[in-house]
Design brief:
This protein is α+β, with helices and mostly antiparallel strands. Helix content is 22%, strand content 34%.
Length: 152
């Protein structure tokens, strides 16, 4: 993670961004969730891992604990870490809810939200990708900081 006060940017390939959007659309009206792994310390999202929303809810997501354990162990075996943790909001803007903030446990990760509601993208840091609002945040010690997204 960058130095205190330093603005971070999520740099992600258009192919990976498209996979997040496709997963969000496929699971709509329920929230979709998953991880994009990358080499430890690289801050480069590389391997897309769609996960199951154990809640199967349009307003809440939770990783299945057994699946999460398996995925995190697999990342560890490959010297990877969760570079991006993403989920969708189906009826609201792409901004972390209080519940999202309370569950954010990976301070080095980019928390990406994809909104599948019909709305115009917000101004700051928003990538209007494939007509969908996509925004990225750092969530550390309960503090939410929006960051720009560069899609390459």
């Amino acid at each position: 993670m960058g130095r205190k006060g330093e603005t971070m940017t999520l740099t992600i390939s258009s192919a990976l961004a498209r996979k997040m959007v496709e997963h969000a659309r496929a699971d709509h009206p329920d929230e979709a969730c998953g991880v994009i792994a990358g080499a430890e310390g690289s801050d480069r999202p590389e391997r897309f891992i769609a996960m199951l929303n154990a809640e199967r809810s349009p307003t809440f997501y939770r990783f299945d604990s057994a699946e999460q354990l398996r995925v995190w162990r697999e990342m560890e075996r490959h010297d990877e870490e969760p570079v991006v943790i993403y989920h969708s909001h189906t009826a609201t803007e792409a901004y972390p809810s209080r519940t999202d903030v309370s569950y954010a446990s990976e301070p080095q990760a980019h928390y990406v939200l994809v909104s599948t509601r019909d709305a115009e993208p917000a101004e700051f840091g928003t990538a209007a990708f494939d007509g969908v609002e996509v925004r990225s945040y750092r969530i550390v010690d309960g503090v939410v900081t929006e960051e720009p997204i560069e899609i390459i």
